[in-house]
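Ticket #4471: structure export looks truncated?
Reporter: QA, pipeline team
Priority: medium

Steps to reproduce: submit the single chain below to the structure queue and open the exported record.
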Amino acid sequence: MLGIAYAMAQPGGDGGGASPLMTLLPFVLMFVIIYLLLIRPQQKKQKEHQKMISELKKGDKVVTNAGIFGTIVGIDERENKVVLRIAEEVKIEILRNSISGRVQS
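Actual output as written to the record:
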């Protein structure tokens, strides 16, 4: 039985000659592909959203993440809140990050 095991063993002691670089190459390629397809576009989108939020001013027409349309009538920088007028005499306070985008007039 031991003779069969020796006969099936690979010749040479290095396990077939595969370099460590070649064994890591598929993992490195997978990470690069995931970065380019998923992580980088998400970071770019988040950066654009933060820029848009920082540029908000009174009078801008916006839409919230909940789908509420309104006009900014006040901004509280200290508490990071925005006051929206959603109808005549109806105002709500929301967090600044809850604004999903500007609405074209």
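Status: closed, not a bug. The export was complete when the record was re-opened. Leaving a note from the reviewer for reference: Residues 57-105 form a domain with the SH3 type barrels. fold (CATH 2.30.30.140).
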